[in-house]
Amino acid sequence: MRHPTVADLRMLLRDHETPCISLYQPTHRSYPETQQDPIRFGNLLKEIESTLRKRHPKRDFGELLGRFRTYLEDESFWIQGGDGLAVFGSPDHFAMFRLRRTVPELAIVSDSFHTKPLLRVVQSADRYQILALSLSEARLYEGSRDELERIELDGVPATIEEALGEEVTGRPPKIPSSSRMTKQGAGGVYYGHGEQSDDVALDRDRFFRAVDRAVLERYSKPSGLPLILAALPEHQTHFRRISRNPNLIAAAITENPHAMSLDELRKAAWEKIEPLYLERLARLKEEFGSARAHERGSDDPSDVAAAVVQGRVGTLLVDAERRMPGRLDESSGRIDWARSGDSGADDLLDDLAEAVLRRDGEVVVVPASRMPTDKGVAAIYRF
């Protein structure tokens, strides 16, 4: 099970065969609280099944619901825990994600997937990934200023044995060979290690190359996040010589990452990421100011809404702490503002963000103190 990425969000925002089921629930990381999680999940499934029967009484959704129920009795699945769970299912698509933040319970059956709770999970500007690397092991982490979590690797070799299998050549010889004897002295027999060292270097490069290729394809490309290399200096040199990952940043953690606690690793990573994070926000703020001055950008919600549905918005900045009760009519670009005091109303900012992503634009969730405007939204147009 993976954490969601921007690529996952875009996939969910595509047109899918109906009905589209979206299930969200908070989960727990430790026993005994984890015991209540499958019970909640079962109750939400009952709610979904009831809705399907009412809306589509003549259709059979046994196969679709069966994919959800697979996890209901899987004790190992619920033991793994997390802060939240998001599950999406339709006749043509199924996806399940662990979330690093809690979400409200939701069981929605509609013509499209409900993705708003995911938006601010995957679009925040302060996120990054860490590749923790040694000669024997590779680990991947994802985090932000305040949290860091190890990612369960999928398709990435975690050890040199996984990467090379029986082709590992740099093993010490089982029986000393007379052909490797270089000298015999009072202290005993000494064997040359030049050949073995060459084999170790070859294995190292093959392992590093396999890790680099898999991380790029499986994680860096889908997420678009900056990648920090955490490794000893000598491994830094060799990995960077081999790497083809454009997301790998120059700043590095040069301690042994496997000897660091999770919090130590997070603090070290944020020291490397914060200057890039602030530089990016400053650049976006400057780009917005220039765009607005040349009528290629706006912070007026009505103008932004119209530009979004026309496909003109290339980058949308959204205030992380702001909520605008209302919804976007994607066919016309009209805003339907909610009545005052309507706590259950949609959030216009989420609607705008979803619409931009559907049109292959970029959405950046920004802290209020770093927004270039106090309107809650800022759009930079493509044209």
What does this 3D model show about the protein?
The chain is of the alpha+beta class. It has three domains: 6-122, 2-Layer Sandwich (Translation, Eukaryotic Peptide Chain Release Factor Subunit 1, Chain A); 128-164 and 203-277, eRF1 domain 2 (Nucleotidyltransferase, domain 5); 295-381, 60s Ribosomal Protein L30, Chain: A (2-Layer Sandwich). Helices cover 38% and strands 22% of the residues. The protein contains eleven helices and 17 strands. The protein has helices at 6-12, 36-55, 62-69, 75-80, 116-122, 160-164, 194-223, 233-242, 262-293, 301-309, 348-358; strands at residues 20-26, 84-90, 93-99, 106-110, 128-133, 138-143, 148-151, 181-185, 188-191, 227-230, 248-253, 297-298, 313-319, 326-328, 335-337, 362-366, 377-381. It has a five-stranded mixed beta sheet with strand order 7-6-5-10-11. β2 and β3 (93-99) form a beta hairpin. The longest helix is centred in the last third of the chain and has 32 residues, at 262-293. It is globular and about 70 Å long. The relative contact order is 0.11. The model is unreliable at 172-195 (pLDDT under 50).
Provide the CATH topology of the largest domain: Translation, Eukaryotic Peptide Chain Release Factor Subunit 1, Chain A
Radius of gyration: 26 Å
Contiguous helical run count = 11
* Separation, N- and C-terminal Cα atoms: 39 Å
CATH class of the largest domain: Alpha Beta
Strand content: 15-25%
Most strands sheet: 5 strands, mixed
> What is the topology, as strand order, of the major beta sheet?
7-6-5-10-11
Structural category is alpha+beta
Number of strands: 17
